[in-house]
TrEMBL record, chain A:
Protein name: Sugar ABC transporter permease
Residue ranges crossing the lipid bilayer per the database entry: 13-40, 77-98, 110-131, 137-155, 162-188, 208-229, 236-257, 269-290
ABC transmembrane type-1 domain span: 73-287
Membrane topology: Multi-pass membrane protein
Family to which this protein belongs: Belongs to the binding-protein-dependent transport system permease family.
Superkingdom per UniProt: Bacteria
Alphabetical list of Pfam families matching this protein: BPD_transp_1
Keywords, in A-Z order: Cell membrane, Membrane, Transmembrane, Transmembrane helix, Transport
GO cellular component: plasma membrane
Location in or out of the cell: Cell membrane
GO biological process, one term: transmembrane transport
TrEMBL record, chain B:
Keyword Cell membrane included in the entry's annotation: yes
Name of the protein in question: ABC transporter ATP-binding protein
GO BP terms, alphabetized: carbohydrate transport
Pfam family, one: ABC_tran
InterPro entries: AAA+_ATPase (IPR003593), ABC_transporter-like_ATP-bd (IPR003439), ABC_transpr_MalK-like (IPR015855), ABC_transpr_MalK/UgpC-like (IPR047641), Mo/tungstate-bd_C_term_dom (IPR008995), P-loop_NTPase (IPR027417)
Keyword line: ATP-binding, Cell membrane, Membrane, Nucleotide-binding, Translocase, Transport
Superkingdom of source: Bacteria
């Protein structure tokens, strides 16, 4: 067999040279913090210090035995799956509606997308104001139409606070789902629907047999991205409730923050962060596996 | 099986008329071809018959029933799209079974699917997905899907245009045999005149949203209704020569050296200066200028290989055609009718 053509001498060097700035930045931004956190999770770090004596897995033991951790874990799952499920369902519904040709469609699209463009702080402050028990517009409206007889404690009751932050999160991020799904909906060839019309399919049958299979890969990918992002979403919850009332909305990232910057137990905070990371990792592995199976079936 | 009548259909997209006052009838069990250049409105007309588009004016009647406003599924038609529009996520089996399933067919779906797929010869590919099929196999799948529920009308929009030339030829042959076997009214859109001549019981030649001529392939070839049809059909097309506000036309294969004719025949004689000869194997195409009794203009002759003596390039030779092979068109390009032809001929000869 003939010798394959190889790179010219110097090609390889040039390639590494060209890549080196990116590699350096990646090391600085990703590898260094990760190694640091990993190292910190195995040290006992006192107040005011950034390192301390090596304690092995003691921090992990303490975190896992702490009821606050289990509570945060449970809250995280409610927060993530509650938010993503509602975002995906709402996003799909609205994308399907916006895909119908109607007058004002352009305006409707622009309006739908605005929450995504409003800075989180502004959005949270506005919602905070609307959620207010006494002067909030939400209670006022719901009472005016007679849906409730007493003001709801949107953020100040342990039973409602999680629902309220999920509401804000969904409001802020469902437009992302709408954008993603609208793109793929428009890519479905119109002839598929016309053929189905002639074949005699109903609207529901067209949705199941044509629309859903077409959008499924993008739908799953969007759900995956939303899951990751929602999992370590911190600002909305922290700004809305600070993790409260008591610990009703304390998710894992909020717990890490509290352990690190309220209790100043950096070692434990690092351990919690790594456990969080591991859980997310497992979640993603399961998810990617499911996605591969779904794609193989296509 | 059904008669399809298109009655004074006009279709406007905004201010633009894609179809203007078209009327035609697709006869029961016959193959009607809609032939015309790209953009002449063939697809639009077919889509109105299918119910995918509402005519601006006029009516569609299928099997004696006004269908203008009927939903596509209630017209009992089947359509094969130009790119087949198979459902990419379903297997071939499920693609073909789809029309039966969605209509809640109560009989043996499996038997019907096997029947339809074996008619087009894809019964061994049922577990595949459309993307694992060749163009020809996809086209057959689309056919099987459309015939599985016994439609009374078949609509086909350039179903062979995505196939390569060789496959197109055999697919055309199969399609024709297939249509004859199941004997269903078929309306077939194409821009390819060879396909149209080979397939059609009748051809409807369209241009710019209007029907130029409706007739059998022979009628259209031998007696084109106007200069558009004359120049659109035939390869090379009919020679058209303007003369004093009229146009005379003759087919290149009817225009031969004078020696090729029997001297007793009624001939029209002229001179032909050959400029270029194209060798096609069976035939030779001669490009050149006619002169003498006709106004000097470009013309083409198609000589079968049986004619031994060829004029050389650059020389002028005596050529002729039978008087009966000449067609006459008036100032607007419309064919001059049989009864008036005699008169017109005298003018040319005089
Ligand atoms: N939905 C539409 N909106 C506007 N114009 C259209 C539409 N569909 C077709 N047309 C126009 O109508 C004319 C005929 O189109 P079509 O029927 O597709 O031609 P053909 O199939 O003969 O190539 C074209 O000029 C095309 O641009
Ligand atoms: Mg077309």
């Amino acid at each position: 067999m003939a010798e394959p053509n190889t790179d010219l001498p110097g090609d390889r060097l040039l390639a590494y040279l060209a890549l080196s700035p990116s590699i350096a930045i990646l090391i600085l931004l990703v590898a260094v913090p990760m190694v640091t956190v990993f190292a910190m999770s195995m040290q006992h770090i006192s107040l005011g210090e950034l390192s301390g004596p090596f304690v092995g897995l003691r921090n992990f033991e303490r975190v896992l035995a702490d009821p606050a951790f289990l509570n945060a874990l449970g809250n995280t799952f409610v927060w993530v799956f509650g938010s993503v499920a509602i975002e995906m369902a709402l996003g799909l519904g609205i994308a399907l509606l916006l895909n119908i040709d109607f007058r004002m469609r352009g305006i409707a699209r622009a309006v739908i997308l605005t929450p995504y463009l409003i800075p989180t702080v502004v959005a949270v402050l506005t919602w905070h104001y609307m959620f207010n028990d006494i002067i909030g517009v939400l209670n006022y409206l719901l009472m005016a139409v007679g849906l409730i007889s007493q003001p709801l404690l949107w953020l100040n009751s342990t039973s409602m606070a999680m629902f309220s932050v999920i509401l804000v999160g969904v409001w802020k991020f469902f437009p992302f789902v709408v954008i993603a799904l609208m793109g793929i909906l428009q890519a479905i060839p119109q002839e598929q629907y016309e053929a189905a019309d002639i074949d005699g399919a109903s609207a529901l049958q067209k949705f199941w047999r044509i629309t859903l299979p077409h959008i499924m890969p993008v739908f799953l990918l969007t759900a995956l991205l939303r899951t990751i992002w929602t999992f370590h979403k911190f600002d909305i919850i922290y700004l809305m409730t600070g993790g409260g009332p008591i610990d009703a909305t304390t998710t894992l990232p909020v717990l890490v923050y509290q352990q690190g910057f309220v209790d100043f137990a950096l070692g434990r905070a690092a351990a919690t962060a790594i456990i969080t990371f591991a859980i997310l990792g497992v979640l993603l592995a399961v998810y990617l596996h499911l996605m591969k199976r779904a794609e193989a079936r296509q | 099986m059904a008669l399809v009548e298109v009655k004074q259909i006009t279709k406007k997209f905004g201010a633009y008329s894609a179809i203007s006052n078209v009327s035609l009838t697709a006869q029961d069990g016959k193959f009607l071809i809609l032939l015309g250049p790209s953009g002449c409105g063939k697809t639009t007309l077919l889509r109105m018959i299918a119910g995918l588009e509402l005519p601006t004016y006029g009516d569609i009647v299928i099997g004696g029933k006004v269908a203008t406003r009927l939903h596509p599924k209630d017209r009992n038609i089947a359509m094969v799209f130009q790119n087949y529009a198979l459902y990419p996520h379903l297997t071939i089996y499920e693609n073909v079974a789809f029309p039966l399933r969605v209509r809640g067919f109560s009989g043996d779906i499996d038997k019907k699917v096997k029947w339809a797929t074996s008619l087009v010869g894809i019964e061994h590919l049922l577990e595949r997905k459309p993307r694992q099929m060749s163009g020809g196999e996809r086209q057959r799948t689309a056919l099987a899907r459309s015939l599985v529920r016994d439609p009374s009308v078949f609509l086909l929009d350039e179903p062979l245009s995505n196939l390569d030339a060789k496959l197109r030829h055999s697919a055309r042959e199969e399609l024709r045999q297939f249509q004859e076997r199941i004997g269903v009214t078929s309306i077939y859109v194409t821009h390819d005149q060879v396909e149209a001549m080979g397939l059609g019981d009748r051809i409807c030649v369209m241009q710019g949203g209007v029907v130029r001529q409706l007739g059998t392939p022979e009628e259209i070839y031998l007696n084109p209704a106007d200069t558009f049809v004359a120049s659109f059909i035939g390869s090379p097309p009919m020679n058209l020569i303007s003369d004093e506000g009229r146009t005379i036309g003759f087919r290149p294969e009817m225009f031969l050296p004078e020696s090729a004719f029997d001297p007793s025949e009624a001939l029209y004689r002229t001179e032909f200066t050959v400029q270029r000869i194209e060798y096609l194997g069976g035939d030779r195409i001669l490009y050149g200028m006619v002169g003498a009794s006709l106004p000097s203009s470009k013309a083409i002759a198609r000589l079968p290989a049986t004619i031994g003596t060829l004029p050389e390039v650059g020389t002028t030779a005596k050529f002729a055609m039978r008087l009966s092979d000449i067609r006459y068109f008036d100032g607007e390009g419309k064919a001059v009718e049989q009864s008036r032809r005699h008169e017109a001929r005298l003018v040319v000869n005089g």
